Amino acid sequence: SNLRVFDMAGRPLETRSAAEHGWQLAQPFKGRIRVTYDVDYSALSAKGWPAPREAAFADPENIVFAGRSAFITTPLVSQSIVQLVLPGGWRPVTPWIPQPGTIQTFIARSRTDLVENLVVVTRNAPEVISASGFHVLAVPMGPWIAARDEVRRVLEGAIPQLVKLIGFDGRENYLVVLLPMVEQGGESYRQSFALTVDQAPSAANSPAWGNTLAHEIFHCWNGWRLRGADYASTQWFQEGFTEYAANVSMVAAGLDTPEAFARRLADHVRNYRSLATTLEAIGTHKGPPLYSAGALVAFSWDVMIRDATGGKRSLSDFLRALWQQTQHGGRAYEWRDIQAALDATAPLDWEMFYRTYIRGDARLPLDKTFALAGLRLDDASDGMPRVAIDRAAPARAQAVWRGLVGGQ
What is the pLDDT of residues 99-127, one digit of tens each? Predict the structure, then answer.
């Protein structure tokens, strides 16, 4: 509201509505302009918020807002300099690059970085966890404050595993916002993520919310950068491989036990049995069956690569190859890109796998895959799938399992 536009001499410029596209100048103008406006979240607040994770949140100690809810931009916006002018005692926490010599001025490297991220203004210092140039800033609120040490333990364990898995060697900031509402949900942004849980966070339930944190952080690479040329037909890869990355990072960091990891695999099998389409034909309806189907593809490829190379290579080598092949996500991938990265990792018939189990409707050969990893897949008395560690498995298969859960 109260939108006003001026030239740099202070003369007002008339605007008109462009409906869902925003506003346009009534007359063409060449040169820099100044835009002032108010952002009012009260209409959303009055309606009970469709989801505070997607717009704004405030309590006495924190203010959180999504960039896309606050910044007016044009398609020509590239790098932006953002200065946040705050009252005394408040500090900004953002995933943008701090401008040298300042504490409230930042550089957003692109329009996407500006609008597709969360911004926090807080009275408290964030937790900061770093691994190989990847810096995570976590802002706990409400019940998360009491679990602050556990949050740090989980992030210190999982983040190095995720960085190693993708082979990230650049420099990146990432913001984790832990909101105090009692609700299960999350919202992912370009370099940030907001999380709510339906029970007070603790060490006892950290494997559950820790896996969610790891999942969303890995989307920084797989989803926001690595992305398919066709959205719908590549969600098995975007969501499923991200979920598997979270699962293996948790167990490799010692945040989950190997037995708990086996139970996660059994849960994926249960969900996968409910998938009613091929992996590519899911459309825009994502959910547990698709996530788990994609996670089982990732698990299968990890096992197949380890078995075929005698443990010398793994899914990490494939992901690193795809990361490099797409210029760090600068180019959208298609199946041929995935296949080329797989071929460079292990000499197996990946095209047959794709035609049969991803594009086709045949079910994944899980019995064989689990056996290659030193595991047994069967059904419990209630009909639910059960995955057990096979202590009598061949030494080759046991070595695959040790590599999986050890992050090797």
Answer: 988 889 999 999 999 999 999 999 999 99
Closest CA to 76 of 111, 116, 107: 111
What 3-state DSSP class applies to 340?
helix
Kindly report the average pLDDT of the chain as a whole number.
Answer: 93
Cα–Cα distance between 257 and 18 in angstroms, integer?
55
Report the C-alpha gap between 303 and 232 in whole angstroms: 26
For 200-249, the three-class secondary structure string (H helix, E strand, C coil) is CCCCCCHHHHHHHHHHHHHCCCECCCECECCCHHHHHHHHHHHHHHHHHH
One-letter amino acid identity for 265? L
CB 36 within 8 A of CB 2: yes
Q: Extract the tokens encoding 165.
A: 């898995």
**Please, which residues bridge with residue 15 across strands?**
25
CA distance 105 to 99: 6
DSSP-assigned states of every residue in 65-94: EEGGGT----TT--SEEEE----TT-EEE-
Q: Which of 184, 195, 236 is nearest to 217 (CA)?
A: 195
H-helix segments, 219-365: 235-252, 258-272, 288-308, 315-325, 335-345, 350-353
Q: Do 154 and 213 form a contact (C-beta atoms < 8 A)? A: yes
pLDDT on residue 55: 85
CB 196 within 8 A of CB 216: no
| Beta pairing, strands 172-182 & 134-140 | parallel
Query: How far apart (Å, rounded) are the C-alpha atoms in residues 49 and 195?
Result: 15
Closest CA to 338 of 238, 263, 205, 210: 238
Nearest CA to 112 out of 234, 224, 231 is that of 224
3-class state of residue 9 by DSSP:
coil
Going by the DSSP 8-state scheme, the letter that residue 348 receives in this structure is S
Tens digit of each residue's pLDDT (9 = 90 or more) over 219-266: 999 999 999 999 999 999 999 999 999 999 999 999 999 999 999 999
Strands, sheet with 62-66, edge to edge from the N-terminal-most edge strand: 56-59, 62-66, 118-122, 91-93
Please tell me the distance from the alpha carbon of residue 258 to that of residue 375, in angstroms, as a whole number: 11
The DSSP output letter for 154 is H
DSSP reduced 3-state for 127: strand
